[in-house]
Amino acid sequence: MSLLAVSDVTIRYGRLTAVREVAFTLAEGEILFITGPNGAGKSSLMRAIAGVTPPAGGRIDFGGAEITGRAPEDIARMGLSMVPEGRDVFGSLSIEENLIVGTGMHTRERGWRVRAASALEEVYDTFPILKERRHSQAGLLSGGQQQMLVIGRALMTNPRLIAIDEPSLGLAPNITDQVYERLIGLRRHRKLTLLIVEQSSTRAMMVGGRMILMRGGQILLDGDAQAMGQSEALQAAYFGYAEGEH
Amino acid sequence: MLQVLFDALSLGSLYALGALGIALIFGVMRLVNFAHGDVIAFAVFALLWPSVDAVAIVFAGKMPWFLLIPFILAVGAGLSVLSEVVVFRRFRHASPATMMIASFALGFVIRYFLLMLFSSRPKSISLLPALSQPVEVLGARMPLLQLITIVATLVMLTGLSVFVRRTRFGLEMRAAAENFTMARMLGVRANRVIMGAFALSGALAGAIAIILGSQTGTVDIQMGGAVMLMAFIATVIGGLGSLEGAVLAGFLIGAASVVMQTVLPPEARPFRDAFVYGAVILVLLFRPQGLIAARGTKERV
Fold first, then answer.
1. What average pLDDT does range A11-29 have in this prediction?
2. Of B78, B136, B194, B258, which has the fewest Cβ atoms less than 10 A away?
């Protein structure tokens, strides 16, 4: 059974339709890239999945339960952790405080303190730079460090799925490499399911896995990222040629 | 000289507590709650039994202080939480301007409710009369109440600061104040944080009610308004949403009012507030974002 199922989701902002009847599923442990040019509706789709902007139509299921229109905090508590575009760190909070915010949902469970402490250690092991600077204000970190912080913060919620919107945005290529290295490592160690949005499909082809290509609010292609890289359909989708035009 | 300092501190205490009450709510939901002053008035009237007679029928006001204070704080907190659940929750996604207008409306509802029960005539009460005895501190004579006001405010501010910095609820509130959506995506419950902020803000209104009631010896349905106005100005000067800024600016405005009262020539004193507001304009010209800009309200890049 799939972990995440998006069925015929339509998202509107007033009279503008950002996403039109998009459907896909994501299996447990899978890595899925959603790529496409600016304005393809990728971020809108992510916001709908996280419960920030409820879709105008269709339904979304996570872990076998419907989450369409549920509150963001409920969806997060079910194990779907969203890392939105633009690295929303709590700039005036310390790094450690940023990380601890995400453990609040478990405070009713027995033994949560021990688990929270070990989760913190795990994040610090994955991103040693965060441990080094744990008491400094998160707003003072560099872009790459902030990206690591928001990924670490998502991990603190002990999620089944992490959805990340444009982790490479504004980062130098070598820093992006580092971020991806950690992400892939985390996926391997914790059997995490990853949903990653990127504007460029290059990264998806490098990492491998499944890729969905969106354009104009719809899914154009859905398949293996590396196989897609060989085909001409990809370029056509990006640059907007009609079939057989060139 | 010392007298001026104590006057400034005690007036500043009122403004700081009021400003903090407004800043707490603004921080989590971008609402400038103009009903705050009426919550203060309501808490003062909770001391009395409803009657339109000119003479106040003291009810809760007769309780010993260790019951009276928690009671009034609870009344303030209760009304504030109720206003969130009944009114503001429905405006959660509305624009700040809409919410502000709703808060004006709620303020009128509270005020006219009090008017109905108590009439508009100010009534005199003697609340905690033992506190009006003068005491001598460092050679300055002042009412015991003034000293208690200053000390109690400092204790409350310290307590609140520890609460906001050290507890999980405080952490969630700071995170929510900076980026509410992100906090929710990390599982922070929006309703809990907002209700907590309203409860704290209402309890602060209760504290102001006790201080005002015992300081002035009168109850009046208008009495929250004047404090509210100055407190609102303090939150703006302090940097909307910044708790430290609100407290700092509250004390500064209190100090400015008291200092101008002594420094201005006697014939200009009736216009003291005009000078205070003039100073406010000057501050905002040079620091439009407030003395301490809050993070969440800054333009995101």
1. 94
2. B136
Contacting B with CB below 8 Å, chain A residues are: 50, 52, 71-73, 76-77, 81-82, 84, 86, 88, 90-93, 97-98, 100-102, 104-105, 107, 139, 153-154, 157
- Confidence check on the interface: ipTM exceeds 0.95, yes or no: no
Structure tokens at B256: 């400015």
φ/ψ (deg, to 5) at A3: -80, -45
Architecture of domain A2-239: 3-Layer(aba) Sandwich (3.40)
Would you call A151 exposed, middle or buried from its count of C-beta atoms within 10 A (0-12, 13-18, 19+)? buried
Q: How far is A15 from chain B (nearest CA, A)?
A: 19
**Residue of B130, B140, B122, B185 whose CA lies nearest to B7:** B140
Residue at B265 is within a domain: no
B296 part of a folded domain: no
CB B296 within 8 A of CB B281: no
Sheet holding A80-83, edge to edge: A80-83, A161-165, A193-198, A31-35, A210-215, A218-224
pLDDT for B301: 34
pLDDT value at position B58? 75
- The total number of structural domains in chain B stands at 1
Give the residues of chain B that fall short of pLDDT 70: 54, 60, 295-301
Residue B46 lies in a domain: yes
Q: How far is CA B259 from CA B9, B24, B211, B255, B265, in A?
A: 11, 28, 21, 6, 12
Residue B271 lies in a domain: no
Query: Which three-class secondary structure state does DSSP give residue B24?
Result: helix
Q: Is B207:B17 a contact under the CB 8 Å cutoff?
A: yes
Q: What is the pLDDT of residue A234?
A: 72
Residue of A nearest to B182 (CA): A88
List the domain range (segments joined by +) for residue B98: 17-221
